[in-house]
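Person: At home tonight, work slowly through the protein below, taking as long as you need, and write a paragraph about the fold.
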Amino acid sequence: MSLVQCPSGNFEGILKDNCHQFFGIPFAKFNQRWEESRPIEKEISLTALEKGNSSPQTRFRDENHSGVGFFLDTSLTKESEDCLSLNICTEDLSGAKPVMIWIHGGALVTGGSSSMMYELAHLAKRGVVIVSINYRLGPLGFLRLEEVTNGKINSSGNEGLKDQRNAIKWVKKNISSFGGDPNNISIFGESAGSWSCNLQIAAGSEGLFNKAICQSGGLDAVASKDKANKWSELFIKQFKNDGYSIDDLRSCKWQEIINTAKKLRHSNLGNGKKWVFPEVGFLPVIDNEFIKDDYLETYSCSDIDLLAGTTLDEYKLWSSLHPNISKNEKDYIMRRLSKMFQQDHLPELIDAYENYLDTNELGKVYSAILTDICFGIPTHKILTKKEGKSYGYLFSTQSEILGGRLGCFHASELPYLFGVHSKRPYSNWGPKESNEISNNFQKPWTQFSKIGDPSFGDFAWSTYNTSFELALIGKNIRAIRNPFLERYEIIEKYKIF
């Protein structure tokens, strides 16, 4: 057993994989649904051997989409509103090692720190303390109700982000007792976890963390009060259609809240244009409290060092499994594109991408456009906002799943980062050089957490702003100029959103 006494209490963990591991430590609490979480002031004693509950999941399914069922995580713990806990892994309880706090992805509606993908020991053995956290998701963590309930429920829509902030505060306060350096903390996350990291920077670090690693997610996943209120109105309308009243919002079972949320899958926000990812209606809100109107300036001016990047074929996770897109059905694809671009600009846009990709397959063109819109451009923007303090990467390893149909898809780097690439079901994701690929993630990630520079071995990693230089990560690692800048210019020229 591993025993730790810290300011928040006494915790008994387990020695596993040659690391001291602690699971399910509560970091905050709230008394009722949609209440802002608060740090736990009273010291507690806990046998921290089991991972905590996962937040209730809002999983969406599209009848026209074969989906990504193979990718859905079945290893998550029991769903419960009582889900605010964290896990800690360290090779040594003494010393002052750099700290890395993992914020999981899942479009802010699914996921959890208990996922079998997020094994912490492999990174911890690189000389860091690793922490993974849970936070409230979907309508329970990102639904603004203040205006639509006339003040009956005073939720800002940022409760999930504030949960994350309380977890970071807990780590800052207690991590020295686990062998971590409270003055050298990095936050890192993928997809919605990357959105979260960026928004934590934009909200002001308050001296709680020093560095951030943002994988496949920019700073654009945030809603105005007006857009958030429109989404909340849709939710309330559906909730009433389901036979409930506003007075039932807090008293009903959380399952009823989730069921209502699932029915918004094909809703729009009154302008006839659906979300690129329709499930991402539950977004953080510019509330002028946690996220202020000048959050972009706050982000740019922060002293947080940044490492950020994408996978080569992000959107293939969805497009390759969508029958209309994978079969190059022109009418369907053109309808989708017309929601994002002026009709008369589409021929020029498509022609440019066909030439770039050397293909006349419209499905591949669509996938590349959406990869750029959803991931490439947002990442490029955050890298350029952090002048002289940002490093970029591009993950290029092609997956072998489904005969290679998915390419280098969204989240395909995660098994390598967490060292589970040789374990089922991830062992068929990539090539035989998987150990080399894993090292090319783990080494720079932990090196960055230590000194704010991911360079390692003979590879000198240049900051992004000087030459738009990325590190191309695969079985080898080398420097390239961002190859998609011309594509980004075309998108920015013609998009209407």
In short: The two ends are 55 Å apart (CA to CA). The chain has a mean pLDDT of 92.
